[in-house]
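Lab notes, practical 5.
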Amino acid sequence: MNDEYIPPRRKFLNEHLIYDATQLSEIEGDNYLYYVRLTTEFLHPAFDRWVLGNNQEQPEKDPQIRNACRQQCKIPSFIKDDINSGKAKLVLDYSTEGYWDIDWQWITKIFEVNEDRIIWLTSLYNFADCRKEVNDELYHISIDKTSAEVRYNPLWERIIVTMLPDHVKDIEKQLNLIDSLHKRPLMAITYNRRTHDHRVALLSKLLYHNELDNMIWSWGGVTGEPLFNNGNEFAQHAERQQRIQQITPRVNVFISPKYNDSVKKILQTPEHSYNEDMSVNKAFDMNYSHIHDTYYQVITETLYEQPGIFLSEKSYKPFLSGQPFILCGQHHTIEVIRQQGYDVYDKWINHEYDNIIEDRERMSVFMKEVLRLNSLSHEEWTKMLKEMLPTIKKNLKHLIDSNDKKDILSFNFSEPQPMPQRLIDILS
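Output from the prediction step:
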């Protein structure tokens, strides 16, 4: 790993987990697990999704791409020999993402190890459900069609827990504002930095119903990169319009034709935010000025119509913010959060939409609940939030307690730090 930081080896699934071949000298010939992190965009090393996805032609036929992937994840030959002989296993950590269309043949070509010697970590909670027939004519590969060992790794929950100590004052202020029946200038927050079809659909509905003016909302916009990478503005504009044309029919799958004009307006709307840099990934950020100015969150998860359930940081941030929420995501995402022990405010919020399989109907019922919540008066909201206060504290406590889960790999390799006593006192 050259001069890169090498985390200390640890135990995982009752085996030695090593991050670098130099650590083999510490385990005296025992069996072991060899760790490689696979992430997109902001962590290293990274694979482009289309390489790991359903594109069967280019990756299979392009040795240059395959070799480039190998360069990103170099594994010594003797480690590969140990893996294939049964002395070791390869841990591939893709738990930042919830992609289900994994081309296992391509994975084995990159790493040159047997498929049944791989442990694959994912943030897909119910990855076994991905065997369901979804666009079967297009997709013939899936995360569950493998001899590898696939395991759910609640990485994002752990990451949100590590953010708690930095926001004790912010949390305390939020709880005090709730207790004092503080009236907030706006109703809700909805963040939509990345362009996903269901987010365009939801923003279009909110625009149509004149709700965006009463919310803090973000939108990354549809951007176009120069066709020839030369900074040509006309080329950027042409590519942007081409992308808009491609997105529009996909968005219309989720909403009725009466929203067509709103879809056009949203797709043509440039980047929009409340004093935030939209070019930066906000996964590790919390803006408590937004939280203190609104009553609840309208979450748009990363995935919507795909199989399986992906829980990103977005599903756990409401517990850190001390706000109730409604979640636009895959069918039964709310139910999974319940199964993890969190209270989703069923007494006050109708999550009926979560039980609906059909995507357009789920979006419609979801929107009805947003409209209902936004129609409540400030007096009703302040009273309701105060009623929720014990539940808000209970969820914060459960978030803290989730730090004790075993066999979870996170990117914070330091020793777990105790929660500040001030935070414990707040929640007691």
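Observations recorded by the TA: The first strand starts at residue 10 and ends at 12. Residues 378-401 form the longest helix (24 residues).
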